[in-house]
Amino acid sequence: RSKMLADLLRAGPIVPVITLERVEDAVPLARALVAGGLRLLEITLRTAAAAESAAAIIREVPEAIVGIGTVLTPKDLERAEALGARYALSPGATPDLLEAASRGEMPFIPGIATASELMAALAHGFHTVKFFPAVAAGGIPALKALAGPFPQARFCPTGGIDEKNARDWLALSNVVAIGGSWVCQTSDIRAQAWSEITAKAQRALMSIKE
Ligand code: 3PG
C-alpha cells in the first residue's frame, strides 16, 4: 500500500484541494486542472455534491487521479472506497480511523499536527502523512523540527499553502507533495472560470520550478 501511495504522489507534487457545491461543475473543473498540468486531485467530503462529483470525475476524466479528502470517520473511508477513489486523506488521525484504514486496502494519508499524532500514524504503518494545518501549525520550522525525531516520515503539507510559499515547502527533503485550495477557489468555481483555473494550475507549477 505504501508503494501504491508513493507511485500516486509522483504524479503530484501539487494537489488541488477541491470543494464542489454543484455536481455539474465537477467534470469541467477536473478537466481545467488536468489541462493545467495537475492530475492528482483531492475532492473533499464537505458538501452534499461531493460524492457524486467525485464519481463523475472518476467516470469521465480518466487522466485525473482522484482522492477523497476530509475523511473523518471509518464510514467516510468506506464511501471513498465505494466511489472507486485511488486514495483517501484525512485532516486528522483518530484511533478509529487509523484502525479502519490499516485494515483496508486503499492508500490512506492521515493528518497530523503534533508529534503524538504522527507517532500514532507511524504505529499503524502510515509513513506518509498530511501536515495540517501546515502554516497555522508552525509552518516550515515545525516540519523541519519533526524531521529530527521522525526521519522516516514523509509529509504532504496543506493549509495556508499558495503560489508564494509552495516552492519553499517542496524544498524540504521530507515533503513529497503539497496541497491547497488556492488553484481552485470557490469563487472561481462558482463563476465557472475554467480557463482562469487552468492558468492558476500552470502558474502553480511554474512557481515551484523557478
Ligand atoms: C484543506 O484540507 O482545507 C486544505 O488544507 C486546504 O487548505 P487551504 O484552503 O489553506 O489551501
Could you please describe the fold and organization of this structure?
This protein has one domain: Aldolase class I (TIM Barrel, Alpha-Beta Barrel). It starts with a helix and ends with a helix. The protein has 210 residues and is an alpha/beta fold. 43% of the residues lie in helices and 16% in strands. α2 (26-35) runs parallel beside α10 (194-207). It contains ten helices and nine strands. The strands form two sheets. A six-stranded parallel β-sheet has the order 5-4-3-2-1-9, sandwiched between helices. The model has no long low-confidence stretch (mean pLDDT 96). β4, α5 (95-103) and β5 form a beta-alpha-beta unit. 3-phosphoglyceric acid (3PG) is lined by residues 17, 69, 91, 132, 158-161, 179-182.
Task: Provide the descriptors you would attach to this structure in a database record.
210 residues, alpha/beta, TIM Barrel, six-stranded parallel sheet, three-stranded parallel sheet, 10 helices, binds 3-phosphoglyceric acid
How many domains, in number, for the residues?
A: 1
- Bound molecule kinds, no repeats: 3-phosphoglyceric acid
Number of strands: 9
- Helix and strand element order: HEHEHEHEHEEHEHEHEHH
Number of helices: 10
Question: Which CATH architecture would you pick?
Answer: Alpha-Beta Barrel
Largest sheet: 6 strands, parallel
Q: What percent of the residues sit in helical stretches (DSSP H or I)?
A: 40-55%
Termini separation comes to: 33 Å
The parts where pLDDT drops under 50 for at least 5 residues are none
